Amino acid sequence: MTVYTFRLYVADQRAERSETALWNLRQVCESRVAGRYAVEVIDLDSRPEMAEEARILMTPTVIRTDPPPRRRVIGVLSDHQRAASALGLPDADGRAEEDAET
């Protein structure tokens, strides 16, 4: 069973954009990989060194760290279908989005 791991980088964890991005990410994960994902929220206001380390230029940014390859999406993830595809999450049939197109 594949477990998906994400890091969500935000500028202020309590800001509306940050909360929206986290909510959207969880909704996308629940619809595609329920019970098989973990999200770590990194507030760059309190950990600014992480921005340089992860090469974060804008927030919110989510990075899928596992399974490889890494995937990166910038924004609040309001288009769930597009976010799922960009993050390489499986479709309703369990196929990865990149596999579903071929």
From TrEMBL:
A Gene Ontology biological process term: rhythmic process
InterPro entries documented for this protein: KaiB-like, KaiB_domain, Thioredoxin-like_sf
One Pfam family in the UniProt entry: KaiB
Domain KaiB: 7-89
Listed CDD domains: KaiB_like (cd02978)
Name recorded for this polypeptide: Circadian clock protein KaiB
Organism taxonomic ancestry: Bacteria, Bacillati, Actinomycetota, Actinomycetes, Propionibacteriales
